[in-house]
Predict the 3D structure of the following.
Amino acid sequence: MSKPVTLYTLQEMKRIGEKFVCITAYDALFAGIFCKAGVEVLLVGDSLGMVLQGHDSTLPVTMDDMVYHMQCVKRGNIGALLIADLPFMSYASPPQTLENAARLMRAGAQMVKLEGGAWIAETTRQLSERGIPVCAHMGLTPQSINRIGGFRVQGRDPQVATTIIEEARLLESYGASMLLLECIPQQLAKAVSASVSIPVIGIGAGKDVDGQIMVMHDVLGISPIHPRFVKNFLPESTNGIPGAITAYVQAVKNGIFPAAEHSYD
Ligand code: KIV
């Protein structure tokens, strides 16, 4: 990667319609492999609670876990933009949010991700005003899995879909720098993406967003669960793991992934 990727890089990519590629990373070695394959954004996701720690949700993940993995990824990074998740209940009050976001930024994050809609607007404003870019994670928000009642597609109901679009606009107006849409119908993701000027990343949200993200274990086909929106790129590789990541990057850039079979109507 020649120049480090910044938020400005992603804004420009959105403007000219070039897709960007994101993947989760939890350690230094994989972070380096992902960068060499051309990934633009690495997310230290709280999915580490499930794929690394073996929990059945992301709820047990702590700030100490996130800081540790962020530090590891930072050491292996070669120019990708680094985003870190604020884990469950680490952004429940303003002072707690600011302190925890600062810990992640000191550990190497360049942006923090929070799950929620209108209720995180004020938090987003406070972080953004203090120089901490925010990615707002909407749609299926795994930290609310007990309220939602399972890992299910969100926004099929027209009223809920309208709320998601309105909340996306609201979050942009409160200073969000990026949105991540998880498990929503393709048409809704397209509408959200067209409603905001900030870059929009999708997972299970179809092809009409600005960037795609997948959990690294899904790209490599080693997760025990296989939701509709994941694809194992290892069989397309002639070069093991680096080749699989390159295949993922190329498929996103060329608009081949996600296909209709990976998306929801
Ligand atoms: O924690 C995570 O890895 C995520 C992705 C599923 C987008 O939020």
Remarks:
- Residues 24, 43, 45-47, 85, 137, 180, 182, 203, 213, 215 surround 3-methyl-2-oxobutanoic acid (CB under 6 Å).
- The mean pLDDT is 97.
